[in-house]
Automatic annotation (TrEMBL):
Organism: Thalassiosira oceanica (Marine diatom)
Region (Disordered): 1-75, 200-222
Name under which the protein is recorded: Uncharacterized protein
Composition bias, Acidic residues: 50-63
Domain of life: Eukaryota
Lineage: Eukaryota, Sar, Stramenopiles, Ochrophyta, Bacillariophyta
Length: 222
């Protein structure tokens, strides 16, 4: 899948709906075996239909066993964000085996109460995005639209602020669902325009004064 990015000035953004984006291309670096999980039943439905059905059938869906490879989210009563995951199996003791698709790490055992069926994030929602364009970083973003490809893999087009040549601009990217975290509480707030580089991919002499480090696990409390 190709990641699209582009920039506009805040002045152009304020001018209304006539804004234009200039996009460049780079490859998202999700990696791993399960990079673009597929939805189970109804995966080929249009985005709007999937969103409506998910809202109407949420209670029923929570009672239905997951299918292997089905998208899911990890979250608890004290979570500020929901971590995207892929369901793998039910263990003998009733716990779930899942894969955290943010970093492709296997979670061999997690209580089923913390694993929820995935539903699309609504357009216009704030989220936390992991962008891989050169060095990978986390940043605040906004959902422009969600869509599925022909294989049923789910993606989002998002907007995020960043500094380019000391000027704040709006960039656009298309990201797989595993790179977009749903905000479910207001206990977390990332400063717009800041890039939180992933620790393993950050150089100690990074020239960006608007960047800092953020652990993927630091903001999650289940």
């Amino acid at each position: 899948m190709t990641t699209k990015q582009g920039n506009i000035t805040h002045g152009a953004r304020a001018a209304g709906r006539s804004k234009k984006y200039v996009r460049s291309h780079s490859e998202p670096d999700e990696g791993g075996v399960i990079q673009q999980p597929h939805f189970a039943a109804g995966a080929s439905s249009p985005y709007e239909e999937a969103l409506t059905e998910a809202a109407d059938d949420l209670d029923e869906a929570e009672e239905t066993p997951f299918r292997r490879g089905e998208p899911c989210e990890i979250g608890g009563p004290h979570s500020d964000v929901a971590a995207p995951c892929t369901f793998l199996a039910v263990n003998g003791d009733g716990t779930y085996r899942v894969q955290d698709v943010r970093n492709l790490k296997l979670i061999p055992s997690i209580e089923s109460d913390f694993v929820h069926r995935y539903t699309p994030i609504r357009d216009g929602s704030d989220a936390i995005c992991t962008v891989r364009n050169g060095k990978a970083f986390i940043t605040a973003c906004e959902i422009s639209r969600g869509f599925q490809n022909l294989e049923g893999s789910f993606f989002y087009e998002v907007e995020y602020d960043e500094y380019v040549d000391n000027e704040m601009r709006v960039s656009v990217a298309e990201l797989p669902f595993g790179s977009v975290e749903r905000i479910i509480g207001r206990g977390i707030a990332l400063e717009k325009g800041k890039k939180y580089f992933l620790p393993s991919e950050t150089e100690s002499d990074s020239p960006s004064s608007a960047s800092s480090h953020l652990s993927l696990d630091s903001s999650h409390c289940f």
